[in-house]
Design brief:
The chain is mainly alpha-helical and about 200 residues long. The chain contains 9 helices and 2 strands. It has helices spanning about 5-40, 50-65, 75-80, 95-115, 115-125, 135-140, 155-160, 175-180, 185-195, and strands at about 165, 175. The longest helix has about 35 residues, at about 5-40. The protein is extended.
Length: about 200
C-alpha cells in the first residue's frame, strides 16, 4: 500500500480490503444465526430441507442487511458447507472469527516490533502445535474487542466509564479502551525510544 503513488489505486485497494473484512464477518455472522435458529427448530423435531432453506435465507438477511439483491441469497448454503453437518463442532463461526482477529494481532505486533519479532513468531508457531488457540493467545497476545474502541466510532461517554487504565511514563492515566486504538501506545513507544537513545 505504501508503495502505491496513485490515490485512486490506493483507494481501490483500501475498498477491496474493507469489503473482504466486511463480507467475511457478515458471512460468519450468517452462519452463527443459522446455527442458532436451526438448534431451536431441531428441539421441535426433524427440520425439513424447505425449512432449512428458509432459515438460511433469513440468517443471510439478518447478517447482510439490505446490501444483497433479491437474487443474492443462497438458500442451499447450509448444504454446501460440511461445517453445518459436523455435530461434534457446532457453531463453526468461532475458529474463523478468532483466526481473523488473531492474524490481525500478529501482523500489528510484527509491524510495531520489526525484525525483532521474527523469533517470537517462530516460538508462536511452535506453540500452535501443542497448545489450544486460547492458550497461545494468552501467552503472548491480548485480544480485546469493544465497539467503542474503533477510532472511527469512538464513544466518549462509554470511554469515560472504562475501569482499567494504563499509566504513562509522565504519570498520566489513559483509559485502556483508548490506549490500544487511537495512538497512545505508539506515542509512548516513540517517547521511550527517544529517551533511551544516546544524546
Amino acid at each position: 500500500m505504501k508503495d502505491v503513488k496513485d490515490d485512486s489505486e490506493r483507494l481501490s485497494l483500501l475498498d477491496k480490503k474493507a469489503q473482504e473484512h466486511f463480507t467475511m464477518f457478515c458471512n460468519i455472522r450468517a452462519r452463527y444465526i443459522f446455527d442458532s435458529m436451526f438448534y431451536e427448530e431441531r428441539k421441535k423435531g426433524t427440520v425439513p430441507k424447505e425449512r432449512l432453506n428458509e432459515i438460511m435465507v433469513e440468517a443471510q438477511k439478518q447478517a447482510f442487511g439490505d446490501i444483497l439483491s433479491d437474487g443474492g441469497y443462497h438458500p442451499l448454503f447450509w448444504a454446501s458447507k460440511l461445517h453445518f453437518s459436523e455435530t461434534g463442532v457446532p457453531f463453526y463461526n468461532y475458529p474463523y472469527t478468532f483466526g481473523h482477529l488473531f492474524a490481525g494481532a500478529i501482523y500489528s505486533r510484527a509491524r510495531h516490533e520489526g525484525p525483532a519479532f521474527a523469533e517470537k513468531y517462530k516460538a508462536l508457531l511452535i506453540d500452535t502445535g501443542s497448545m489450544a488457540c486460547e492458550e497461545v493467545a494468552a501467552k503472548g497476545f491480548m485480544i480485546v474487542i469493544q465497539d467503542f474502541q474503533d477510532p472511527y466510532t469512538l464513544d466518549v461517554k462509554k470511554l469515560q466509564k472504562c475501569c482499567v487504565s494504563e499509566i504513562t511514563p509522565d504519570g498520566r492515566l489513559i483509559p485502556f479502551c483508548a490506549f490500544n486504538s487511537v495512538g497512545y501506545r505508539e506515542q509512548i513507544r516513540e517517547q521511550l525510544s527517544t529517551q533511551g537513545s544516546p544524546a
